[in-house]
Predict the structure.
Amino acid sequence: MTPILQRIGSQFCLEGKFESYEIIKNGNINMTYKVTYRKSDGALKSYIFQKINTHVFENPVAIMRNIDLVTTHIRNKCVDSPTLHFHHTKNRDNYFYDTDGSFWRVMNYIDSVTFNNCSDLTVVRNTGIAFGRFQMQLADFDGARLSETIPDFHNTKMRMDTLFADAVKDPVNRVREARAELAYIASVREKACELSEKFYHGEFPVRVTHNDTKCNNILFDRETKEPLMVIDLDTVMPGMSMYDFGDAARFIASTAEEDEKDLKKVSFDKEVFRALAEGYIGELKGHVMDTEITTLPLATFSITVELASRFLDDYITGDSYFKIDYPDHNLVRTRCQLHLAKSIMAQFGELCETIERLR
Ligand SMILES: Nc1ncnc2c1ncn2[C@@H]1O[C@H](COP(=O)(O)OP(=O)(O)O)[C@@H](O)[C@H]1O
Ligand SMILES: [Mg+2]
């Protein structure tokens, strides 16, 4: 790997000489390397080199343009704290296409830790702080300036229309296995689509959304465990702020994995929700519309049903999108997410009270 990284590094304006590298195994989409250079004064300086997965991200140049707009905006606000910065090539691009077609970018390395799962409520609260701060820093940025690199990503109504249209076609004869799941989704369809419908009618501002609000996309201080910054900006797009929170809550407050078969293990932990909301709202209060706070429980429910619909649509149409480990994996995922959605609904009043107390 050394000669490749040396060649990639030589395209960017970096200080010093290549010294060493290590692979960072944390992510699951791109290939990430920590690459260390030795400066002329002898000091070491590290960078993050990333080779973008262009099967997943088909338009990496538009992604880098989005990232550039967002990171520049944040950097101009946070002059005293570390921020993410992408280095430029000699052509002033913030990316480099290698001769084999692979797509590379280089950013500053931040000495930090990441957590893959956060059972600790302090880490959960800090996760809320990180995503709330991200939204706060971008509250005066018009999300419509960003390219919608995955069109209709969180158009819940469209996702559901697609699901029910595919269920009518039943192309691989699987609908009979999923009658109960389709019936449940049909029964909550209107509620789950409410926010996204209002958004498309202009009732909520077009924000910058991150769209992958997991705790392993936050860098934390090694010692204090305070959140330093949000990373992994490949899916920043125009959208609703509440869905980012909702997706973080869906993931972090679930008591089980996304594909748990034993539904007795799957529920929504309202204490985890509270800690996340406390961090998030504490940072964001006063910077967004009140309705972007009061609708957080509905956003959590909606995005959970939306994801279930996507899993179910993939199951019904023959598993072409999500990677599966066994034949009915997508049906298992659907059932798990719907079970979680029911758990959210069962506690809906309490979740709303929590938000009321925090706002
Ligand atoms: N600027 C950075 N400084 C330090 N570590 C980083 C930086 N960027 C990414 N990482 C580490 O690399 C991992 C993968 O990066 P990420 O951008 O999230 O890629 P993926 O899209 O593959 O998830 C992160 O979880 C984090 O541990
Ligand atoms: Mg990541």
About this structure: The chain has two domains: 2-108, 121-358. The longest helix spans residues 179-200. The first strand starts at residue 17 and ends at 24.
